[in-house]
Amino acid sequence: MRVLAGIKPTGDALHLGNYFGALRQFVDLQEDYAEPLYFIADYHSMTTVRDGEQRRRNTFNVALDFLAAGVDPKRSILYLQSDLPEVCELTWILSTVTPMGLLERAHAYKDASAKGTSVNHGLFAYPVLMAADILLFRSELVPVGQDQKQHLEMARDMAESFNHHYGCEALALPEPYILEDAAVVPGTDGRKMSKSYDNVIPMFAGKKQVKKSVMGIVTDSTPVEDPKDPESVVFQLYNLFADPEERKAMVERARAGGLGYGNVKKELLDKLLDHFEPMRERRAELEQHPDDVADILRTGAARARAIATPVLEACREAAGLGTPGA
Ligand code: ADP
Ligand code: TRP
Prior knowledge:
The chain is mostly helical and 326 residues long. The chain has 2 domains: 4-185 and 290-319, Rossmann fold; 204-284, Tyrosyl-Transfer RNA Synthetase (Orthogonal Bundle), CATH 1.10.240. It contains 14 helices and 5 strands. Strands 1-2-3 form a 3-stranded parallel β-sheet. The chain has a two-stranded parallel sheet with strand order 4-5. α8 (126-135) packs across α9 (149-166). The radius of gyration is 22 Å and the shape is globular. 37% of the residues are buried.
C-alpha cells in the first residue's frame, strides 16, 4: 500500500493541529508501510506566497519540521514537489477530465470567493494539482486532516474519470486516512485550530510564547470547587498528550470538582514542552547543516521520480501523447 502526504510551506510555524492532524501520522505510518512518500508542496504555496526568497526559507523550515518530528529519510521518501515538474504535466492531463462544477464546489475556492477575495486560477485548480500529487505515484493511503477529505474525494473522481475516458487502469483510487481521535484539534478559542483563526499553539515556538498560548485557552467561569466538563477545550488538548490512564484520571478529577482550570493548563504545558523538547533539539541541530537537508531532498526526488515515471508514461500512452522514442 503506497502512502503519500504533503504540507504546504506557507511560512507559518506549525501548530498542534498540523502535528496531530498530519505530521505525527506521517511518522507513525513509517512503522507500518514501506517507503511512504512525504513532500513539501511548494507549487501549492504559489497561490498565496509571491516571494521566491521567502518560499525558499519556508521550504527549508518545513523540511526541518518534517525531519525533527521524526520523518526518517531512510524509511520515507522526503522530497520537494517542484523537484518533480512531472506533477504539472499530470495536473494538465487531469484538468482535461475534471468538470468545472466539481472545482466550483471545492471549499478553498468557495470560501475565498464568498469572502470576496480575488481568486487566481491556481487556487481554483488547487484540487487538480493535489490530485496529481497523489495519483502520480498510484498512492492508495493519504493521511490528512478532516478538512482535506473533500480534496481526496475529488482525486478519486479524477482518477476514475481518466481511467474511464481512456479505458485504462493507469491511475489508482486513493483512500483518506484520518486519525479519529485527533480528527480536529481545537484551538485556544474552541474553534478548529488554524493559523487563519489566530488560535494556534505552535509546536516549536519559544517556551514563553507556548506558555502564553496555553494560558490563553478559553475556559468558562465554573468556580474551582464545582465539577468541570471533561469534554471542554482544555481537557481535549490535555488528552492529546496523555496516556489512557492519565486521561481517565483527569476525567475523574474534573467530575469531582476542586480542580482549577489553571492547574490543568499548567499540567498541559508541562506535558507539551516535554513532548516537543527532543524534537526542538533535533531541529536546532539540523538547522546548522543545510547541505545535509538539501542532500536528503535531492535523494528523495530521485527515488520519487523512479516511482512516478512509469505511471506518467502509462497515462501518456493511454492518452496518445508523445512520439515513441522521442
Ligand atoms: P491551517 O488550518 O492552520 O491553515 P493547513 O491547512 O496548512 O493548516 O494544514 C496542514 C495540515 O494540517 C493538513 O493536513 C490539515 O488537515 C492539518 N490540520 C490543520 N489544522 C488542523 C486541526 N485543527 N486539526 C487537525 N488537523 C489539522
Ligand atoms: N492541500 C494540503 C493542505 O492544505 C497539502 C497537500 C498538497 C497535500 N498536496 C497534497 C496533502 C497531497 C496530501 C496529499 O494541507
